[in-house]
């Protein structure tokens, strides 16, 4: 049970830094308990479980790991916690961005170094509500994942690539995943090694690598590489809500398009994802006018 500590170089918010890795409530691969963050992963060395806890009294973050992937996880702990990230690279051009950074000085961009771990749930989130995608992720991991190493048996490690390929069509259907999304996942896991190579590439090259797979477009690639690379410029394009939130926060206008969002974020070139994340943290969003989109369930069809 190896242990490693890390000392943040400045203000640090553990839960907002790592919270983006959580795929909804009840995520079988991510949990928070007594202030500790638990994460179950499938690393290149095998399954591993990581427990991370902030210790404000002495300014340290302490991590413990279990399983064949334990050493791999601890070796990359500083990158996961954002040591290689540079929040100061962003120059605030709007008051709302300045204020969000002032209120949340400890938020960094996590870098997992793992592609499929973020790619598969991002594919599940295509063109459906978050609740539908989170439900699919929970059902698939609980049924086809493996128990995570370590003392907490509630956690599950996602299947290895062959395990994803062996999930029968009716299990995807039962989880509410249509053929378009399941086919994209199956194509990705067939070339899992090529996908994982993207974790060592620059953003543009990694995006090209991921989007070479039919069914994986710019939206999915950005959502993946924000987490895999901790990429500060991986702005999500094609999202139903993000342009409207960014446009309303920066201009007070509704109905902003992707093109208009990119124009508004042009002063943050190189840091557009970080700027968007700070805007989201500000909490400023257009008031809801229509009922929430109903949750579908193809498993009932």
UniProtKB/TrEMBL annotation:
<dbReference type="InterPro" id="IPR051912">
    <property type="entry name" value="Alkylbase_DNA_Glycosylase/TA"/>
</dbReference>
<dbReference type="InterPro" id="IPR011257">
    <property type="entry name" value="DNA_glycosylase"/>
</dbReference>
<keyword id="KW-0227">DNA damage</keyword>
<protein>
    <submittedName>
        <fullName>3-methyladenine DNA glycosylase</fullName>
    </submittedName>
</protein>
<keyword id="KW-0234">DNA repair</keyword>
């Amino acid at each position: 049970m190896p242990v490693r500590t890390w000392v943040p170089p400045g203000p640090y918010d553990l839960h907002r830094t790592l919270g983006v890795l959580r795929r909804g409530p009840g995520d079988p691969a991510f949990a928070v308990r007594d202030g500790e963050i638990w994460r179950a992963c499938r690393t290149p060395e095998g399954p591993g479980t990581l427990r991370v806890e902030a210790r404000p009294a002495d300014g340290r973050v302490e991590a413990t790991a279990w399983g064949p992937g334990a050493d791999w996880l601890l070796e990359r702990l500083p990158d996961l916690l954002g040591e290689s990230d540079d929040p100061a690279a962003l120059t605030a051009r709007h008051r709302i961005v300045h204020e969000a950074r002032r209120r949340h000085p400890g938020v960094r961009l996590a870098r997992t170094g793992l592609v499929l771990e973020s790619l598969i749930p991002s594919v599940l989130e295509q063109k459906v509500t978050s609740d539908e995608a989170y439900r699919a992720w929970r059902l698939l991991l609980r049924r086809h994942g493996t128990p995570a190493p370590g003392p907490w048996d509630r956690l599950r490690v996602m299947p290895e690539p062959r395990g994803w390929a062996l999930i029968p069509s009716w299990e995807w259907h039962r989880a509410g995943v249509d053929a378009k999304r399941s086919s994209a996942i199956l194509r990705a896991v067939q070339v899992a090694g090529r996908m994982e190579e993207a974790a060592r590439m620059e953003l543009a090259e990694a995006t090209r690598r991921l989007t070479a797979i039919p069914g994986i477009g710019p939206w999915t690639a950005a959502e993946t590489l924000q987490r895999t690379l901790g990429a500060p410029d991986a702005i999500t394009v094609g999202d139903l809500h993000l342009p409207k939130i960014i446009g309303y926060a920066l201009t007070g206008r509704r109905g902003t398009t992707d093109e208009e969002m990119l124009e508004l974020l042009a002063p943050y070139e190189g840091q557009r994802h970080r700027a968007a994340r700070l805007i989201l943290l500000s909490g400023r969003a257009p008031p809801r006018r229509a009922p929430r989109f109903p949750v579908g369930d193809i498993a009932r069809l």
